[in-house]
Amino acid sequence: MTMNRWQASESIFAPIVAALPPGTQWSGFGNAIIAASECVPDTAIAYRMKRPGTFKAVNEIRRRSLLCVTGENAAPFSARVSLLDRPPGRQVPNLAGIRLWEVGTTWLKKGLCTPSVPEDYDTAILQVSKFQITQRGLAGGPQLALLRHLWAEAVLAASGEAIVFGGQYHWQDNWWTEKVMETEEAR
């Protein structure tokens, strides 16, 4: 399989490969994923749930936001971003129970993506490692699409010779359907 097969795919799940020429004055692919994750807005999601010991179901508003980790905490990736639905009053949620999707960035060995990427370029891959499909489709799909777009745009902005190819990374405003949360400062 050649890299040109990835170029044809517009799947939100297909990996995105990005490459920067040698000598690019930039801090790296990890900083691009951190910056991209900070730019995806939090949203409010209403859950209908039954509390233990009660007969009535209640609505609970959860905060849907991204969590970015790097270094050893991101293993097996160099950087990892998860979309979480945080229950009220919880600052650090149990990641296993409420993670809707996860992407990871991995630096690739030089020359691995030739001929699509020149051998001396610094190269990284952004790949979806976990996701949840519901009756309504991909849980947190707009956030995933926006994160992938922002990461690719950050790489492209680093150098006029940067290369980005692979799965869907283009953004369309009509993909966003969730209400963005108001922050304390905005009230």
The total tally of domains equals 1
Largest sheet: 7 strands, antiparallel
How many helices? The count is: 4
Order of helices and strands: HEHEEEHEEEEHE
Low-confidence stretches: 1-8, 182-187
Q: Biggest sheet, strands in spatial order?
A: 2-3-4-5-6-1-9
Mean pLDDT: 79
Distance between the termini: 53 Å
Number of separate strands = 9
Amount of beta strand: 25-35%
Task: Explain what the structure shows.
This protein has 187 residues and is an alpha+beta fold. The chain has one domain (3-42, 56-186). It has helices at residues 3-8, 29-39, 95-98, 141-158, and strands spanning 16-20, 43-50, 57-70, 79-86, 99-108, 122-131, 133-134, 137-138, 163-166. The chain has a seven-stranded antiparallel sheet with strand order 2-3-4-5-6-1-9. The longest helix has 18 residues, at 141-158.
Q: What descriptive keywords fit this protein?
A:
seven-stranded antiparallel sheet; 4 helices; 21% helix; disordered N terminus; alpha+beta
Set down the secondary structure blueprint.
Layout (H helix, E strand, L loop, with lengths): L2 H6 L7 E5 L8 H11 L3 E8 L6 E14 L8 E8 L8 H4 E10 L13 E10 L1 E2 L2 E2 L2 H18 L4 E4 L21
Helix pairs in contact: 2-4
In a few lines, what is going on in this structure?
The chain is an alpha+beta fold and 187 residues long. It has 4 helices and 9 strands, in the order H-E-H-E-E-E-H-E-E-E-E-H-E. It has helices at 3-8, 29-39, 95-98, 141-158, and strands spanning 16-20, 43-50, 57-70, 79-86, 99-108, 122-131, 133-134, 137-138, 163-166.
